[in-house]
UniProtKB/TrEMBL annotation:
Pfam families: Hemerythrin (PF01814). Residues 77-208 form the Hemerythrin-like domain. This is Hemerythrin domain-containing protein. CDD domains: Hr-like. It comes from the Bacteria.
Amino acid sequence: MGRLKRTTPIVHTNEVCSRRPADTTGPRHGGDCRPAATALASRHRPAMGSGEGDAMAATALPSSGAPMPEDAGCDAEDLVFVHDAFRRLYAVLPTGVRKTPPEDHRRVARVARGVAMVGDALHHHHHLEDEYYWGPMQTRRPACTPHVELMKQHHARVAALLDASAPLADAWTTNPGAGTAEAFAAHIEEIGALLRLHLAREEELALPVMGEVFSQSEWDAVGAQAQKAYDRSQIFLFFGIIQDSLTPERLDAFIAEVPAAIRILYRLIGRRQYERSLDLLSAGTVRPGPYDAAARRGVG
């Protein structure tokens, strides 16, 4: 999917990593990485049961690290829009499972496959971050290691929950009914709750660092890898949700970055496929169209 041109700087008011001084000379190294204690204290934190919040109080590590690229600095904002798509999907999937008529075995199977498809996309998204983002962040900004370790912990917990989905989905498709549907839907809600917390922490603690330590060419290369791994149904579903989340100005910039072949396919078949998929996965409770993605962010 295309890279959205940044319209505002990715600098949070509770910025977690100090910027390099303007007069820095010689090889550029990572600066301090400071927990945003005030902001974190003001947020609602669901009980995680494994001390994730405590990781933010870790002692700061030495600030020097591996030299960053001379052209370090990238537009990492597009990552938020992918996150928004996952937020929306995991908000509607439980309802889709609960409201699918149990007597319609074919539809039950299609919804279960759709849930698995979204889970596969989430697993792939986290795998790319694990493979391409965390290592360079730690070497170029060592003081952010506690934040990176927190992200890895979250990914492991999400992966475990995704793995545990399969038997619940099998039980529902084999014996559709209120009991099996509720067990599956409740599990999806558990994934969604953890995911909302993880994405909020990543956008607060890791995203500002990504925008500083990666070059644009490095960032774009990871995006190209991501596109190759998604199948067409996944691309159209996420492409449609992301489009619906953007303001007209940002949508124009986003579309301009999308390869012409994808734009044409989306107009011809992709939009209808996206609309059918969203209708299926939400059991008709969510209609395609503009929505306020920003209102869904956070952990509350």
